[in-house]
Amino acid sequence: MKICFFADGQSPHTVKWCEHFERLGHDVHLISFRKCNIQGVSVHFVNVGTLNVKGGNWKVLFTVLKVRILLKKIKPDVLHAHYATSYGIVAALTNYHPLVISGWGSDILVSPKSSKIMRCLIQWALKKSDAITIVAEHMRESLVSLGVPPSKINIITHGIKTNVFCKKEVQKHDVFTFVCSRNFEPLYNHIQLLEAFEILMNKGLNVNLKLIGEGSLKEDLIHWVDHRNLGKNIYFQGRISQEEMALELNKAHVFVTVSTTDGDVVSLVEAIACGNYCIGSDIPANKNWIEHNVNGLIVPLFDKETLANAMIASLENYSRLTEEAMDLNRKIIETTGNWNSNMALAEKLYFNLMQDGIN
What is this structure's pTM? Predict the structure, then answer.
């Protein structure tokens, strides 16, 4: 089968999709607005200049002719656009079929509320698609509100590579360490985490915080940390490989994510698989994976005091809490968190679309 993904080539999720289906023996192509190199995958770069990760990249709409020409040359059996806004809308404009559009999170949960024009464009693109995938059940209601027939909706959770993200025989950091691997963008709400950590420091606790990722707010967050003289206990680390991420998670003790909205929260599943105790904000995405007081803690959004208390509780009761979380975490990784079984659902969807003869 010849599959053409239309997605951000610098996203680790895109890379995982491409590499997986290439390893299965499919002829995999990727059309992307950002340069990349993925072994075994035919990458087609469409230059639109610098893209704003916060959105508003209307210039991508003018690439329709270039993308249409590429598709005529590639002639894929399936075109799969990841992210319903930029890539999904342009894919729909090409009028290529069969077309699958995947919603990852804020493209379905937030973007349609940003303006009437964006809502109409997303609705139109989803209507033009032959199938839609989302990464979590809580996103279904948003799709239905956009007029999507339930029969078109497929829930395909990303999950993790269990051979990479698993508990390893490595020594934990000598100092109790909290870790967060969310990118430095507004929706990931790092300031709540930093303010809560400052409370721990003011109490004289011997703890560290490691922040892994990149993003538009990185310099602002570093300045915030330096201004409060917390640099000796808060460490910033850039984007790293999956193998390096698994090692960092194994060395840390507690994973924290306090995003304001989310789809699949792959980073949380990675942390669970690596044996971290987890603290998450009170949003549906986190509650898909964390059962409060069973395998982690759920805390209110924008409440630094409650978050700080949860972090202290995880420190003081670490051994007991991780032991209690073990059974549920193991079940999660064996079922809904498994990348390979989840991708089998995607492959089945592709074959079904081919057999239906959609063109």
Answer: 0.76
Q: How many domains does the chain have?
A: 2
Cα of 323 vs its chain's centroid, Å: 27
Judgement on whether residues 6 and 148 belong to the same structural domain of the protein = yes
| pLDDT tens column, 275-285 | 999 999 999 88
Full residue range of the structural domain in which residue 119 is found: 2-159+338-355
State how far the Cα of 43 lies from the Cα of 36, in Å rounded to an integer. 7
Residues 351 and 287 in one domain: no
Whether residue 165 lies inside any domain: the answer is no
CATH number of the domain residue 40 falls in: 3.40.50.2000
pLDDT per position as a tens digit, 65-115: 999 999 999 999 999 999 888 899 999 999 999 999 999 888 888 888 888
Q: How far is CA 45 from CA 7, 79, 110, 166, in A?
A: 11, 16, 28, 34
pLDDT tens column, 171-182: 999 999 999 999
Phi, psi of 323 (to 5 degrees): -65, -45
The structure tokens listed for 222 are 């570093």
Exposure class string for 241-267: b at 16+ Cβ within 10 A, else e: eeeebbebbbbbbbbbbbbebbbbbbb
